[in-house]
Amino acid sequence: MNKQVICITGMHRSGTSLLASWLFEQGLKMDVGGLVASAVGNKKGHFEDEEIMKFQAQLIKIAKPESKGWVVKDAIQVQGFKKGVQGILNKRESFNQWGWKDPRSVLLLNEWNTAVNDLKYIFIWREADAVINSLQKRKKRSKHPLDQISLKHCYQTWLHYNKEIIDFYTKNPSNCVLIKLDDFLENDKKVFDYLTNAFELNLNYKPLNTIVENTMFSEKTNNIIKKTYKFYFKPELVEAQLLQLSLSF
To answer: Under 8 Å CB-to-CB from 125, ≥6 apart: which residues?
Structure first.
């Protein structure tokens, strides 16, 4: 069996934790560095490898001190990735298939692509309205500084992350899969079949409805301020590009 390494990523609050937990339950090893504990907005946990998450967050914070390690609205240049990542990869060398999930990986796609031969990427995206409402809802419920993000920065960050995904996908289509969250929720068996065939993964299928809560992704927005920002930032233009590249059923 060929060695398979999978990066699971997308904008925060877009379903990355759900996708990662589903793949974890089916046998994809994702906990080499210990999984990040649950928190507000992720009661079942983030399914992030803590070692990789902390490594990426630190690089991002050094490059953009005001970012909190994830709120990034334009391109960044990080220092020390190549040196720091080698120890991470060495610890995982013995595994035939493994992966990690972290939305921050969107900001470091080119670095990861250079570091890992034939790395595969599973991107998941969610419409801006739902993501931004989820971020604002979490902000109200949480006292953690990382969760405090302005509405304007929500839109800017959503746009930047998803534009980075589009740019990387168009340059590396053979190693990438882009999935809309709604399609994943409705067609998980088809997603499973596609991923296991396209990326040669040895997994055991478990239905998504054994993991997901029915009300988990019901975020909607009707706030006049949000509508004003939406009119200004026009996320629907990026959504149309994402949809065009997404796995279809």
So the answer is: 10, 11, 14, 162, 165, 178, 179, 180, 181, 242, 246
Q: At the fourth CATH level, which superfamily is domain 4-245?
A: P-loop containing nucleotide triphosphate hydrolases (3.40.50.300)
Instruction: Say if CB 132 and CB 154 are below 8 A apart.
Output: yes
Tens of pLDDT, residue by residue over 190-240, are 999 999 999 999 999 999 998 776 555 655 655 766 788 888 999 999 999
pTM of the complete model: 0.92
Nearest 5°: CA angle at 8, between 211 and 213? 20
Low-confidence ranges of the chain (pLDDT < 50): 37-43, 45
Strand ordering across the sheet containing 176-180: 97-101, 4-9, 120-125, 176-180
| Domain segments of the chain as ranges | 4-245
Take residue 141 and report the two structure tokens written for it. 């419920």
Task: Let me know the angle formed at the C-alpha of 179 by 56 and 199, rounded to the nearest 5 degrees.
Answer: 75
Going along the chain, which residue ranges are E strands? 4-9, 97-101, 120-125, 176-180
Structure tokens at 241: 């590009």
